[in-house]
Design brief:
By secondary structure, the chain is of the alpha/beta class. It has 7 helices and 4 strands, in the order αβαβαβαβααα. The protein has one domain: 3-Layer(aba) Sandwich (Rossmann fold), CATH 3.40.50.10310. It binds zinc ion (ZN).
Length: about 250
């Protein structure tokens, strides 16, 4: 009997062998173990990327499976806060490439990375470039929040968002409400470094900031404005647009 589940690792090897011919892609969720202020868990990014990945896979009727997530990410900038575990860009790049190489050896040509953590974007962009040009695979990186910037703008009350904020806390209330400590929500005192250093500035320098340069609690933005209703709107928009982006991608790569 073949499980009708999307989680790669819950299958047996012969089930995967039988599924491979009709697989159009495999999703690799990538997150982080890092501080998310007082009210969200260290697991927030990985839980989120994994939740979105599984919701997205449901839309493809078994033709896309989801790999176990990479739990750790590049989080050096959060290391001033206890509990954060960081791995280097080199380690993450190598991990993604070696996972992709195993897939390729089993005949899978298309890997889609769904990323839950801003600090991973640089290295994951390099990873998909490498997978395409050096490994000959079809590779795509999706940072789901980047697909819904218009929805974020119309949904949020705060103009500053980025980490353990109105956006991320609202979405966490949908993705895993048990991990949100409502009684510990507190807005940070945010520090402005300069107009070219603002996280939301369209004209900004590339500066390797540490989170504590901007915030006392670890949050970048105002979690007190979060709600489950906002979270539902944001979460379903991320799922819907990620599905759309994958459909477009699969048309491009065939
Ligand atoms: Zn996060």
């Amino acid at each position: 009997m073949v499980f009708s589940v999307f989680e790669w690792e819950l299958h047996s090897w012969d089930e995967i062998r039988d599924l491979i011919p009709r697989l159009r892609a495999v999703i690799l969720p990538v997150g982080s173990v890092e501080q998310h202020s007082y009210h969200l868990s260290l697991a927030t990014d990985t839980v989120g990327a994994y939740r979105i990945s599984k919701e997205v896979a449901k839309h493809f009727g078994g033709s896309i499976l989801v790999l176990p997530p990479i739990y750790y990410g590049v989080s050096e900038h959060h290391m001033d806060f206890p509990g954060t575990i960081t791995i280097s860009s080199e380690t993450l790049l190598r991990l993604v490439c070696e996972i992709a190489d195993s897939l390729k050896r089993h005949g899978i040509r298309t890997l889609i990375i769904i990323n839950g953590h801003g600090g991973n974007i640089g290295v994951l962009s390099e990873a998909v470039r490498k997978l395409r040009f050096e490994y000959g695979m079809n590779a795509l990186l999706i940072n789901p929040w980047e697909l819904i910037l218009d929805v974020i703008e119309e949904t949020l009350e705060s103009d500053v968002w980025g980490h353990a904020c109105e956006f991320e806390t609202s979405v966490a209330l949908v993705e895993n409400p048990k991990l949100v400590r409502l009684d510990k929500i507190v807005d940070p005192k945010l520090r402005r470094l300069g107009k070219y250093f603002d996280l939301k500035s369209k004209n900004r320098v590339v500066y390797p900031w540490r989170t504590k340069d901007f915030t006392d609690t670890g949050a970048l933005g105002y979690p007190s404005k979060a709600s489950k209703e906002k979270g539902e709107k944001l979460f379903s928009a991320m799922v819907e647009r990620t599905v759309e982006a994958i459909e477009e991608f699969l048309k491009i790569v065939g």
